[in-house]
Amino acid sequence: MRILVRNAHLVTPPCGGPLRGEDLRDVRSSKTSILCVDGRVEAFGREAEYLADGAEVVDVGGRLVTPALVDPHTHLAFAGERDAELRMKLQGLSYLEILNRGYGIYRTVEHTRSCSVGDLAAIVHERLNTMRSHGTFLVEAKSGYGLDMENEVKILRSYEGLSGVIPTLLAHVVPKGWEEGEYVEYFKRIIDRVRDLGLARFFDVFCDKGAFSVDAARELLLHARNRGFGLKVHAEELERTGATEMAVSLGATSVDHLEVADEEAIDALASSRTIAVLLPTTPLVMLGGPRPRARRMVDEGVAIAIGTDFNPNNWIESLQFVLQYSVYTLRLLPEEALSACTRNAALAVEARDYGCVAEGKACALAVWDVGSLDSLAARIGVNRLYRLISPIEASTSRPKT
Ligand SMILES: [Zn+2]
């Protein structure tokens, strides 16, 4: 499959990284043509035109073209919904009170357990389409609403065979009625089983107040690392626990959340290769709470990425929106937000072929219905995607609605 994208205003981060400090702003901007062959970028400019014989030509009329967005943190597969919780939060109910009304995570676990793999796969497929219609191609997708062997495996099976999905086994919470130590031993067997079945590339653990302790999380992470998983940690969202330093010391690929990360945690990240995945809509959906100190992190040299954290309590499929929202609320420059949602996000899931547009890299392009990155960042509330060009279909047409 050959496709020539003509009259593009291409804006892309460089392909190195993780990008940090000034490198996050160092995007390349050019008016050019881009030739893709069999899902890879082959050539640019005059050379692309010269080699384009027989290619499908897509004239984008000077529109902004960026790497397709990469969402490095989602809880994609779950059943049911908990939208009524918003009203409860508005009424001032605490998380515990919401749990006592039969909502919260256990409601999602119950709905998800009652689904077949096929049911879940259909749900996942629909959500992926929505994400793609807003400019995201590559999506990290966690398990975590099964809590037992059978259901964690089932959730990961719902991701099997999907292009552009990177599956992660998540140890989410210690279920009601279990001691932490006892559940850690049980979860190690889930890790082994998932490894034997080849169902996940990463292992992630929610290490925070009300979830796993730092010691328990370390034990699980070491077990997973010994079995070849890349490591991720949900850390420093609710309470400063030291999970960041623990994750960095184990060589974690990413540490995610970090709303309450302090100077020491920021220093630990800045002097490591671990990527800080920020999820800027957490304080939005919680109706308050601290925001990650993104500006400080960038200035201190932390490699930041940005994700949606799509989950039943944060029902946001559009990373395009989160990119814009992070400019407005975290005071990131549009270039920094773009790099965080593309190149660094790709490195946060160890997908080095994605998140930048260069010869030999995956042909995953987002064509936006605006002429500049400033316009993409500024104009919120309407889907600005004009067309996603992905390596699976080589050209997935989606006329703007
Ligand atoms: Zn999460």
Describe the structure.
This protein is an alpha/beta fold and about 400 residues long. It folds into two domains: about 1-65 and about 355-390, Urease, subunit C, domain 1 (Roll), CATH 2.30.40; about 70-345, Metal-dependent hydrolases (TIM Barrel), CATH 3.20.20. The protein has 16 helices and 15 strands. The strands form two sheets. It has an eight-stranded parallel β-sheet. Strands 1, 2, 3, 4, 5, 14 and 15 form a seven-stranded mixed β-sheet that branches. Helix 6 (about 150-155) runs parallel beside helix 7 (about 180-195), helix 7 (about 180-195) runs parallel beside helix 8 (about 215-225) and helix 13 runs antiparallel to helix 14. The model is unreliable at about 395-400 (pLDDT under 50). Bound molecules: zinc ion. Zinc ion (ZN) binds next to loops.
Brief characterization of the structure:
The protein has 401 residues and is an alpha/beta fold. The chain is built from 16 helices and 15 strands. The strands form two sheets. The protein has an eight-stranded parallel beta sheet.
Please give the oligomerization state of what you see.
single chain
Distance between the termini: 26 Å
User: What's the name of the CATH homologous superfamily of the largest domain?
Assistant: Metal-dependent hydrolases
How many structural domains does the protein architecture include?
A: 2
Give the low-confidence spans.
394-401
**What is the CATH fold-level name of the largest domain?**
TIM Barrel
How big a fraction of the residues is strand? 15-25%
What is the share of helical residues? 25-40%
- Return the CATH class of the largest domain: Alpha Beta
Bound small molecules, deduplicated: zinc ion
Question: Widest sheet: strand order?
Answer: 6-7-8-9-10-11-12-13
